[in-house]
Amino acid sequence: VSEDRRLVSVAIAVPVRRLFTYRVPETLEGEIRPGVRVRVPFGRRRVEGTVVEVGVAEPETGRELLDLESVLDDGPELDPPLLFLTRFVADYYLCSWGEAIESALPPRVRRRPRREAIGEPGEPAPALSPTKAQEAVLAEILPAVHRRAYAPFLLFGATGSGKTEVYLRAAEAALAKGRGVLYLVPEIGLTPLLLSRLARRLPGPIAVLHSAMPAGERRDAWERVRSGECRVVVGARSAVFAPVPELGLLVVDEEHDGSYKQEERPRYHARDVAVVRARNEGAVLVLGSATPSLESFHHARAGRYRLLRLGGRVEQRPLPAVRIVDMRREYRETGAVRPVSRALEKAVAEALGRGEQALILRNRRGWAKALLCPACGVRIGCPRCSLSLTWHREPGRLRCHLCGIERPRPGACPACGQPELREVGEGTERIEDELRRLFPEARIGRMDRDTVRRRGVQERLLRQFDRGDLDILVGTQMIAKGHDFPRVTLVGVLSADHTLGLPDFRAAERTFQLLTQMAGRAGRGDRPGEVIVQAFDSGHPVLREAAAQDYEAFYEREMGFRRALRYPPVSGLVRLLVVGKEPSKARAWAQLVAEALEQAGENKLVLSGPGPAPVERIRGMYREQILVRSAGRRRLVEAVSRALELVERKVPRRAVHVDVDPLSVL
Ligand SMILES: [Zn+2]
Ligand SMILES: [Zn+2]
User: Fold this and answer.
1) What's the burial of 366, exposed, middle or buried (CB within 10 Å: 0-12/13-18/19+)?
2) How many C-beta atoms lie closer than 10 Å to residue 333's C-beta?
3) 370 Cα to the center of ligand 1, angstroms
4) Residue 583 half-sphere exposure, CB side, CA atoms within 13 Å?
5) Mean of the pLDDT values across residues 441-451?
6) Contacts 24+ apart (CB under 8 A), 4-8
7) What phi and psi values does residue 265 have, to the nearest 5 degrees?
């Protein structure tokens, strides 16, 4: 089959894993090259796509080829390294190349907006002189930056040990070499505080990229990065695709954070894409965390990453004292179910008395997780999901946290007519109320998805707390991340064990991370901190390991469990969800998918399921789950890909959701 220079392959953002061939009209020939955005006829529509290959063979479909319609004159154009990277994303995460490209590109906007990357520095900050520990770590990283070759590091250091200073010095070195810097932070970590710190230290303008910013600003920042005007990019997940020319350093801060994983197609993990990108482009990669993901620590142990330890806290501040309060005993001794224990109440009172601040974590929002009938045991559930509705006193509605549906509170049990419904499982709203009752004089703020819904509220709360205008900040895991409040000397964690019982193999890892992160918030100034952890299962090893801030003890024990059950990181894992309106259909389709997996995997894959997913129904759709495991990740992905081709004509495409390296299996 001969190739024709006038035929091109175009990637289109549809969920079909193939490319489409078009003919280039003579008038456009000079403008066509890989990475160029074009408009093409597609069925009865006109769609945008990306030329990925020029000069291809005519496909043997027998159908006549159509002409490209036009080249989009304002791009955005993808350069070869990013084309290559998006190809990897498509192959590995089993989406189409067009979908992968779509998630890498900024949104298209018509009118060019005002320029809005963060400005030049207001006043440059003098660099702190590095500590001994930072110097030792930099002695490994800086030579790698000078070598201009792929070198992966895992920077393992407690909260407050000064990881940011290490990133900054590595960035300075890369910039001095004329190379670009990509600095990824979790969604929540993009605080004005971090940005101003970077701007004060690094030369030149810094581009900010994340998916929540207005389309125009994002597009503009993207172009300024591609042109080389901004050589430093700070961003969340999707910024891993920022078109930084001559990439020299890639930082992934808080590499364990779940927000790096995209939970919709394409379901890529930005940290893992960053590893591939750094390797492709010969850049230095620094993954940083106080609680590394088991994956990253496992890679470091196996020698794939260089493990760098950053010792204790800067200025030798002591780690906070952690106390675990047994809530069963609390109940036995007080005879009352109260969300705030006596020990925590006393500690808050003392901190407030000294003019210090407290952070209180309750990782569940709303007033009560469920309304329960004490007579017949019925819970008020969501009509579309297998989940109880959460009672929100403000605005006085029952809400489903999966699908968002709202209902008024029933006056009586819908099953038996019992007039009084019991509120069970207190959330942040109820905790805030309890704290106001206990400490009527205190100034209390609450931070969760309900209170920060409006733009700017989160920043305002953080600023108020930082300035000392609030005494207590209560909230969900939002309050655990990335903030440095020197006046906080007390941290309280309520129901620390509630996530441990979830049927998800990462439940213990997530709980350990959250507790360690929270403990790191206490006593960051010159005063020592105290952490009080309330739990019913107070003897759980995860709580003890987190209290002792002993990551490696946790790692060893948890890895034993992962090895025994062949879960990541010792095994590759792909999750397939087969969904349908009728449970019988979903079940039958899932059976077909499982058979195809057996066939494609030549019986070398380990299959769990099909069976109902832990959350069996969401938005009225029944969910059957299949977990597939195998030691070789690439082979696993290829087998799943073949299996999907085998069922293509038997199971509707929309019914099968594939997640490679899933973070959650609920
Ligand atoms: Zn009832
Ligand atoms: Zn629902």
Assistant:
1) buried
2) 10
3) 13
4) 6
5) 95
6) 4/55, 4/56, 4/57, 4/58, 5/54, 5/55, 7/55, 7/56, 7/57, 7/58, 7/65, 8/32, 8/51, 8/53, 8/54, 8/55, 8/56, 8/68
7) -60, 140
According to the model, what pLDDT value does residue 249 have?
98
Residue 401 to residue 353: CA distance in whole angstroms:
38
In single-letter form, the type of residue at position 393 comes to R
Cα distance from N-terminal residue to C-terminal residue, the chain: 48
pLDDT band at 74 (very low <50, low <70, confident <90, very high): confident
Token readout for 254 is 């808080």
Q: How many angstroms separate the Cα of 95 from the Cα of each of 90, 204, 268, 658? A: 5, 37, 10, 9
Q: Are the C-beta atoms of residues 514 and 485 closer than 8 Å to each other?
A: no
Q: Output the CA 419–ligand 1 centroid distance in Å.
A: 8
Q: What is the DSSP letter of 183?
A: E
C-alpha of residue 388 to centroid of ligand 2, in Å: 8
Residue with tokens 């995860």: 542
pLDDT at residue 118 above 60?
A: no
Which of 74-83, 352-361, 476-485, 611-620 comes out lowest in average pLDDT?
A: 476-485
Q: pLDDT tens across 129-180, in order?
A: 888 899 999 999 999 999 989 999 999 998 778 899 999 999 999 999 999 9
The predicted structure's pLDDT at residue 181 = 98
**pLDDT tens-place string over residues 520-556:** 888 766 777 899 999 999 999 999 999 888 899 999 9
What is the 515 CA–ligand 2 centroid distance (Å)? 29
pLDDT (mean) for 29-58: 93
Please tell me the number of Cα atoms within 13 Å of 56 on its side-chain side. Answer: 20
Question: How far is C-alpha 135 from the chain's CA centre?
Answer: 30
pLDDT in tens, 413-434: 999 999 999 999 999 999 999 9
Q: Which amino acid is at 183?
A: Y
517 three-state secondary structure: helix
Per-residue confidence (pLDDT) for residue 269, from 0 to 100: 98
Is a pLDDT exceeding 70 seen at residue 591?
yes
Q: How far apart are CA 577 and CA 572, in angstroms?
A: 17
CA of 65 to the centre of ligand 2 (A): 46
The mean predicted confidence, pLDDT, of the chain is: 91
Nearest alpha-carbon partner for 647 in 550, 563, 547, 576: 576
Sign of torsion over alpha carbons 648, 654, 655, 656: positive
Identify the nearest ligand to the CA of 422 by its number. Answer: 1
Dist. CA 661 → ligand 2 center (Å): 26
What are the distances in angstroms from CA 168 to CA 174, 195, 199, 251, 306?
10, 12, 10, 10, 19
Instruction: Scan for tokens 């440095």, then name that residue.
Output: 484
Q: How far is the CA of 424 from the centre of ligand 2 (A)?
A: 18
Nearest ligand to the CA of 379 is 1
SS (H, E, C) 614-643: EEEEECCEEEEEEEEEECCHHHHHHHHHHH
In angstroms, the CA 286 to CA 215 distance is 29
Return d(Cα 291, Cα 280) in angstroms, integer: 27
In this structure, the strands spanning 530-535 and 488-493 are parallel
Q: Residue 120 pLDDT > 60, yes or no? A: no
Q: Which ligand is nearest to the CA of 414?
A: 1
DSSP state of 25: P
- Return the pLDDT at 134: 93
CA of 227 to the centre of ligand 1 (A): 65
Tokens linked to 170: 């590595």
8-state DSSP, 67: B
| Residue 351 DSSP class | H
Q: Coil, helix or strand for 584? A: helix
